[in-house]
Amino acid sequence: MSFFQYINYPSWISPEIIPGFFVRWYAVMYLVAFGITYLLFVKQIKRDKYSIKKDVASDYIFYIMIGLVVGARIFSTLVYEIDDYYRNAPWLIFWPFRNGQFVGFQGMSYHGGVIGGITAALIFTKVKKLSFLDLGDYLCTALPLGFTFGRLGNFINGELYGRITTSPLGMIFKTTPLTHRFNASKQWVQDFATKINMDISGQTLVNLPRHPSQLYEAFFEGVFLWFLMWFVVKRFHKFKGFMLSMYLILFGFIRFCVEYFRQPDEGLDFPIALGPPSGIYEFKSFLNITTGQILSLGMAVTGIILLIIFRLYSKKNE
Fold it and tell me: Which domain holds residue 195?
């Protein structure tokens, strides 16, 4: 087998920082994400000499962090769960144990996090009598770089991976109880393995290479979007709410595109299926749209509407 046919998930990567200890890298990555977002947020405030106390700025980020986590968790469990476990027992949404085992908080929806974060920001700025749009612009300029580490946390967990692929970028993730493996006796599986010179003889179930979509998202929705917001879009910042609106537009568009590489959630499949019938494991058509793409499109459209509203409001007050 050649390195260029597919990549094996690094064997030295483990979700646990210390084997047997409940603290995982995923949680640490979230803390790093919020830390970086806070530092970049404060950097902008200092640069512009914006009138806000340091402790108020830190409280602002803290409460948004809480709102983001709460929104992401609730949205994930109630929208993406297909077995009704949490719908029938919503009081367990923030209980980190299941069937007597510690499972942490597996399942966090970014779109839900956006709703929760915005809600927290609205409440905080209303109570503190601050400008929601000013602080929102600063936050959204900083946010993408922090997001990068959240997706790296998903990669370390070996979750939210992409669809199977014959691309040399395809990666075989570690086999876990949640990993979907394919019946090696099926002809299409054998043909797929042949294309990448993968020996599956003697195997009953086989784990096929997948797009490492967590890394795609970490780069495009994280590093690349942060570069655009920080160095390019910011140059056109002429009215309040501009950066916030542009973040919603750009993130929504980028996420919509990256979703074509990501495996849809099992059971949700394609709410909009206008292309040839296909399963969730292989890409077949651009016309088969996932739940994540619908939410991303809604996010982008909301950003466009807000951009127009904020621009008209700005002109009215000139």
Answer: 159-316
